[in-house]
Amino acid sequence: MIKDILNYDVKYVRLPYGSYPKxxxxxxEQLGFVITEHSLDSKDFLGSSDAMVHSYxxxxxxxxxxxxxxxxxxxxxxxxxxxxxLLIKKQRLRPFLLSQCI
Length: 102
Hints:
Elements: H1 2-6, E1 12-14, H2 22-30, E2 34-36, E3 40-41, H3 50-59, E4 67-68, H4 74-90
Parallel strand pairs: 1-2, 3-4
């Protein structure tokens, strides 16, 4: 179904909310997915606030290598994405697909 919508074979998935129940992992692996984790959570699921933007700034560090931006809250993510991108560029990080680094 995902391929029909995106015209792209999805191989890697991150389970929601940083939760990795064994039954969910088993189910995803049976479907052929590779489970990934994140080292920096955008916390955009918390809702919109100026404090949320500062949480990105405080969370970004040179050792972080993956930022989770939650698509289930697209309006909030879209609202703060320009600020997030500025913070990422300021630290000279660059966006990429997870599949590019594996």
